[in-house]
Each structure stands twice: as structure tokens, then as C-alpha cells.
Amino acid sequence: MDLIDIGANLAHDSFDDDREDVLRRARDAGVSRLIVTGSSDESNRRAHELTQEYPGVLYSTAGVHPHHASDYGDQSDALIRDLVVRDTVVAVGECGLDYFRNFSPREAQLDAFRAQLGIAADTGKPVFLHQRDAHDDFIEVLEPVLPKLSRAVAHCFTGEHESLREYLGMGLYIGITGWICDERRGRHLYEIADAIPDDRLMIETDAPYLLPRTLRPRPQTRRNEPAWLAEVLRVVAEARGQSIEHVAEITTANAVRFFGLPT
Fold first, then answer.
1. What is the assigned CATH class of domain 3-259?
2. 89-98/127-132 β-pairing
3. Where do the structural domains in the chain lie, given as residue ranges?
4. 152 in helix, strand or coil?
5. pTM of the predicted model, to two decimals?
6. pLDDT digits 0-9 by tens, 103-162
7. Which distant-in-sequence residues (6+ apart) come within 8 Å of 232 by Cβ?
């Protein structure tokens, strides 16, 4: 298999001691390329550095997560603009709104979100989107800008059928994580996964978060890693009533097209 993990936080310090082994296990599991998520000034720089250390394997995004929106200013804006014109930085984000925790005030989140959508519009780079418990404001900010954006993906989609229908109607791609493997929180996602058209579906781990609960035997640590993308693939294929091979083929083709990766 040739899989692409469209969202892995490999700049996270939990990978500092064994990143090389993590990438080897990913490769052995069929994950040939990964998009390293940028979410703050520090992680944006580190994610880009990693793409230079692993050319042709790692690519990255550059953005400020809503949790860090209070820190967004001229320096963050300039850094993202500097990074996204580089060949290995393939999207703006992770950006959006998160009202579940409100680590940054909502007005700061809205300002940072609008600013990053502006960068995407100016540069033509796709957008890597985050939304949690902020659907109405998210739509209100995003929808008017969509005609100026090249492409956008709802990263780590966990919503219900209505929000899925709305996102698809807006032309968004949908990123599915190990949330679909969680029988407690993700059963609804399992039941609507077949509503995503073949040409809009992508898969991701969001490592080190969202370890798939269906893994057997269960790992000794709760840290998720890109090798477990194969389990997300298996459960997504099961939920959609499609073969693993088919879902691998379409999600990889979609990721190549979305991020403009070499074929």
C-alpha cells in the first residue's frame, strides 16, 4: 500500500527521542508520505525543518491553531507567509475555531482565522481547517472566502450528518482520524462515513493524539503514531463497505491532488 497521513504532529516533543523509529514503522506499515501539522510559530518552524531532514517523505503546513490565537500577530503572520511559499510547505493551517476549550478568547480566534484565510487566498495554498463546537461562526467566516481559496479540508472531522452535508456542499474535503475507531464517541461517524464521495475523502492520524481504540493488541503506550494509519484505513473501509485497497487508492490520490504532491 501507498498511504499518506495528511495530519501528524511530528514536531511534538513526544517524538523527540524516537522520531526515526516512528518513521520507519510508518514506512513498514505502508505510509510513504506524511504532512506534518504546524500549529504555532515554534511548531511551524520545526515542521519545516523536518521536511528538510526527510525530503520526499515529509511535507508540512504552517498556521496557528485556535488554541494559540492569542499569540497571533504580525510575527506569526509574517512567518506563515514566509513558509508557505516554500516547496515543502503545502498548506495554510491548522487554523479555525475551537469553542470547546476556549484556550484563546473567541474574538482572538476569529481574528486569527480570518487572517490565515487571507494568507491562503493570497498565496493559492490550500487550507487545513479545525472546527470544534463553533460550527455557525466557522461557516460564517469561511463561506464568503471560499471562492478565493484553492482547496480546503475539514481536518479531523467528527461532526454529524448535517454538518458533513454542509461541508460537502461547500466543496470541502473531509479528513477522517481514529475518532471513527472509538465506539463511545465515534459511532455516528462510522455510520455516515459512506456519505463522503470517493473524491473528497482523506485519512489522518493526528498523532500523537487519537490512538485508534480498535487496535489489537493494544499498544503499551497511548501515544498515537503514523503507523496506525493502517487501522484508520481498515475501519473507514469497513464503514464504507469498500475494500481496503480501494480506500487506500482514493485517499492517496486525493491527498496528492489536494496538497500538490509529486506523483
1. alpha beta
2. parallel
3. 3-259
4. strand
5. 0.97
6. 999 999 999 999 999 999 999 999 999 999 999 999 999 999 999 999 999 999 999 999
7. 176, 177, 178, 180, 181, 203, 204, 205, 212
